[in-house]
Fold this sequence. Notes:
Strand content: 25-35%
CATH superfamily: Ribonuclease Z/Hydroxyacylglutathione hydrolase-like
Helix content: 10-25%
Amino acid sequence: MKFRLPTLLVPVIVSAAVLAQPLENYQVDSLGSGLWRIQALNGTLSTAYLVVGAKEALMVDACAGQEGIAAIAQRLAEGRPINLALTHGHFDHSAGAKYFPEVYVHTGDAPMLPADVAAQRRPLVDGTVFDLGGRRLEVVAIPGHSPGSVAFFERTGRYIMTGDGIGSSMVWMQISNLPLTTYLESVKKLESLKAGIDELYVGHHEQELVKLTTQYITDMRIVTEKVIAGEIETSPYEMGTRSGRQAAYGSARLVFHPDRVR
C-alpha cells in the first residue's frame, strides 16, 4: 500500500542556545542538491540524513541525542516543514527525536525509543511514500537487525538509506530476537532493488572505512545463506553480553547468535 503522508505544519522546537552553535556536535556534508549527511562527532556516533524537496524535507534518523541536530535540519530546510522518520528504534538513531514534535517509526520498534522522547509517534509501514515535492522516498521494511528496521529508497536519485539494516561494513544480528531466516528475506528484498541503486547511505558512516557499493548487499545475502546452511567457517565475536559468532564473505561480515539461525 502506498499513500502520501500529511505535511507537518508544527515547527521544529529549537532553543536560542542550540541555534547559536548548531555545528558543535556534527559534521554536515552535501551529497548532492538537496541531500545532506549529518555525522555526529561526539558521544555515541551515528549518521543522519536530510532530504530537501520543493515543498518539505525528510530527516532520516536523529543520531544519539547530541544538541544541535534540529537546528541544522531547520537551517538546511530553509523554512520548509520537516518530517522525521527513523530507520529503526535503537537509541543511537532515535534519541535525537526528543528535539522534534513528531516522529515516524515502525510499530515494531516504537517501544525502543528512549523515555525522554516525547514526540508524537506516527507509524511507518512497508510501501509508505514521503512525497517531498520533486523527491519521493519509499519505505522498504527490512526486519532483522531490529523488528521494525526500514530503509528509505529514492528511485529517481538512485540511492537508499539503510540505517543498520545491512550494517556499515557488518550487521549485528546477535542483538536481535529474529532468526537469520527472517533477515535473509530482508536482504533478498534489498537485492531485488539493486539495479536501481547507485549509492548506499548507511547508519554509521564513521565505520565505513571503504566506500560500500551494492555488491555489499549481495555479499551480505551470500554470507547469510552460508551461515544458515552451515557452509562457512565462523569465529567468536566478543562483546560482553552482546557476544556471538561471526562470518565474512566478500565485503560483508555477519554477526549472529548461534541459537537464532532458524
